[in-house]
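Hi R.,

Here's the chain you asked about this morning:
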Amino acid sequence: MPAIAPEAPLSLRLREGTRAEHQEAESEGFVSRLMAGSLDVAAYADLAAQQLEVYTALEEASAAVRRDARGASLVFDELTRVPAIERDLAHLYGPAWRGEIRILPATRAYAARLRDVGTRLPEYAAHAYTRYLGDLSGGQIIQRMMQRHYGMDAAGLEFYDFSEIPKAKPFKDLYRERLDGLELDAAETATAVAEAQEAFRLNRAVFVELGRAHPGAGAPS
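And the predicted structure, written out as tokens:
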């Protein structure tokens, strides 16, 4: 792949700079088995529990970044996921879900990283990019696979329902424009790309631990 010009837009640098890490996370065994229908709703419920921990930390950072003169443009109420995840967990586990879910060590490490660096604009941009644009892209495929393979309906899958964003592509284009308009300097841009790579590695580590917990059919013995 040709080198990316230093003056390339931040959104392009994030996309190209994380291509390898993105592919590694997507090809992790847990994801492949879940999407293929060889796991069960319990495996998805466990994933949703991990999402709650991560998005709670991310959206705490969003509240802080909203107060940043540059960063405020990158925070959209339409993207808020925590209430939807909580409704999903109530459906998947029942009303006592808070006492039923478990948070994996890799997930705690991911959330700790977000809380450690997420209020700084370059790092926040990296984490928000990897999560929210992923939810609006590949996340929609996950939603369809859960419905197809496990008979789930809208209840339990609200995480993937962006009711305030009726058309994903124009919104994603707008989000990339906002990223590119942050006016990060060269050092901040390099920090953002490195942090986005770290975000994918942290996410993959969560998938590895979920894979151990839910080997399913076709998993290595």
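Residues 10-213 form a domain with the Heme Oxygenase; Chain A fold (CATH 1.20.910.10).

Let me know if you need anything else.
M.
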